[in-house]
Write the structure tokens for this entry.
Amino acid sequence: MINSADRYFIERKYHDPEKEFDAFSRMAYHGTGYIKESGLCDKELLKGLEQLSRENEGLPHPIARAKAIKYVLENQRLYINEHDYFVGLYSLNRLANESTFKKWEKESHTLRNPETMECSNDFNNSGAVTIRTDYDHVVPDWKSLMELGFVGIRERAREYRKMHSENKTMTKETEAFFDGIEIQYTAIIDLIDRMYRTACELTFEKAPQIAECLKNLRDGHPTCFYEALQFIYIFFIISESIDSYQVRSLGNGLDNTLYGFYKNDLESGKCTKEDIRNYLSYFFMQWSAIGNYWGQPFYMGGTDLNSNTKYNELSYEILDVYDELEIYNPKIQLKINKNTPDKILNKAFDMVRRKNASIVFCCEPAMIKAIMGYGATYEEAINYDIRGCYETGVRANEVCSSSGYVNVAKAVEFVFTNGYDYGIKKQVGVKTGEILEIKTFEDFYFAFLKQWEYLIEQSMKITNDAERFLAFVNPSSMYSATIETSLKNGKDGYAGGVKFNNNAMLNCGFASAVDSLMAVKEFVFDKKEITLSELAKVLEVNWKGYEKLQIKIKKSPLKYGNNDAVADTYASAMSSYFANKVNNVPNGRGGVYKAIFHSARAFINQGEKTGALPDGRLKGEELSKNASPVVSMDKKGVTALVESATKLIPSDYHESFCVDVMLHPSAVEGEDGLNVLKGVLMTYLNKGGQSIQFNIFNTDTLRDAQKNPEKYQNLQVRVCGWNTLWNNMSKKEQDAYILRAENVE
Amino acid sequence: MKALISDIKRFAVHDGDGIRTTVFFKGCPLKCVWCHNPESIDFKPQVAYYENKCIDCGECVSVCPSGAHKFTQEGHIFERDLCVACGKCEKACLGEALKFYGKEMTVDELLPLLLEDKDFYKTSGGGVTLSGGECLMQADFCAELLQMLKKEGINTAVDTCGYVPKESIDKVLPYTDTFLYDIKAIDENVHIKCTGKSNRLILENIKYIDSLDKSIEVRIPYVPNYNDNQIKQIADFLKGLKNSIKVRVLPYHNYAGSKYEALDMENSLPVRLPDGEEIKNAEKLFTLI
């Protein structure tokens, strides 16, 4: 395992943890310990890029882009350090974007439909839909990469180029596509050569090993475990930080991508198990040190075509090393099925209950069904990738971009305001009539559906318009070269080159909307305790003076998440409504839309822009997240929550579906506690759930942590597909966790 | 047939194996000084008033048929003597300050509630536990309920203090998978001091259940200054039984303090809590049984 001096160095490799650091910013990273003479500083690089951009004016974008990347790689300052097995670069801030991506994005704005652009701004500003063009959210084909190396990937592209020439399928675009790959991969290979030559001159202990590794990666594919890790790291850092393509998984199942190397090294005696653990510890520390807000994902396990588990010895070692490092980034997704070994489940659950480790449990059966829902074959579906938080996709053949976080709670708000947004003082929703005109719950419900439908359909228009320019703005030579379908088609993965060119539309604030509709049904129409127009006024004054009614409404059992027949019937109907509106609707890139039950940070950001709601929620408070209930409204506990959530038919959400569970530590102690956790997981799986994630806390700990942050430097919580440190959250966010914990005391 | 139920707890994970639903029957023949379910001692329904949760909403006043709830200058006053234990105020209370213990329920009413988490029982090796109070004080009802549960293929456990006629045990025997059996002391005088009753019947009954090779998990509350000197004797006693028996030592805790107050019951809870070392030592005595 990594020693403390080396760990100290790597923790400062990308930014200084003692200094203020914006984890959301991609412009916050710099390597340290670099060799100054080996390249240029940022300012000089930007100047050179500007010059280059003038020279490249008029070139096809893939070529201009690859040349910009090549320039940065050629002039990049390098480091190879005695404290690290992994190489280093100095300028990690996507500098090439300044003279390419950003310029072209502006250009695309002048070409876009001004009406949908305005609608997009209104949606974002009002919090009705968070929508921006998603240029990079993919997983490369690690299998090709591992088999071919950078050289082999370039060679394969050359062969396909030849094929297109011979078949007379070579268009100008195809030519530019292959040129882009040629330039960029050659630049990468040259960079590795430069690193190799640097390493040869160094005299510290790790230097010869690093040099040999670089030589092999320059000339071919990785040949051992350490080289495979270095290779993944180099691909990642160039793709994410020099180019601008997020790598949304390390490995097509990190354990499976690495297993062959692991076995060979152990059998040949090249490595001991301790060596393997040592390399893994340095490897994981890179992402812990990068420390970006959303975390770096990798997944493990799965099932093969013969129904055997794909977990192996290395899967367990990976969990164990991760555990020992006490880190929360990278983050781990575990594919779960009935064949998942107990050893893996026990280890993972023990990590979750002991320290809330950053692990999400992803149930294969429902995920496979979801993927087949948009036309994938069983063979394609079973080998699926998990990307980002817990999104799924067909391995090496799908580009799915996020295209709108639709805030369904806002649709409820708009029924009261006839589509007018008081926050930005503008008509944002559709006109469904004055609230005074609504006489029955059915009328209210249909007005709500109209508002929701409008947000969904407009979001699609916005997305389809914007995505005409995906590859124009951000051509993906580095990614597309790994995807064989893309080469066969001679097209960039973001220009329709892959088999599945999809979009995901996110269902946000769901339980807040369900509970609000139920409150209108119960208190306005069934019990007639208040009229609809009175309720509209109550919401306008943010419940001030109506606290008693607010408590009464909150206390009502008619809430999503409690296995309540009435509330769940509406919840199911609403969930299906969204899925049906979204799933398999053709998009602008020759693919389809996919529904996704995921909120990312929208439950906070959109919450801030959403007014008071009929369920008793105050203006600005968090909305519900994922397919989870409103905070502390799941009064009947985890079993009822699982029942309610799985009634929504999770596999209807073709991209992902996740539920959050809060448990008290006393419920999960000892061996019995592991059985309890496994029981919850397996029941969720049996009932068709997709992903499930846990927070295990008592209020005493959280209250104490709020008072004495210095005592809880390492306390982490699960947010929404990633973990964060307790101390990095705002008081408001912390309070919401304390409420959740109170609910399970 | 109806039973008096004080509470139903879903996702109960300390009342037998796996994820369970526990039914707490109301009424108990013993009165243990450390009782952590004082709401289950009395055989009659009771209202508990948790004063610190009251938000002065006044809803209870308007629904109470007997004028037991009042608002004066001192705030909310609950006059227990006037209370007819109808349970209406619990439903109305906005602050969840009023709890009603002692709902009358039939098997038909209970059964669907207990089956709600059926799928979780299967995956976790759990089931349904009848507890209390002393559930076997309503043995006919228990037998009927357990029989229905077994028909549904549910694992059943009966959590008993053992201070019941042998016939009561006979009634539930055929439908009970496991007995969770409390043993508090071997010395009769200690037992009387701790619980108000002799333990002879209790020790006879466990021998009887054991003789029939029924699965038993013995549960021993560890209460310093009360029964901590009994642990060795309990271990010896259990060694004399026919079957080897799973034992769980339950460290005494005083969380129930607020319940005594809310029920206007005299708080008999011991002051000293056991430390981890004491519990470990006690557990050691049972490793070989």
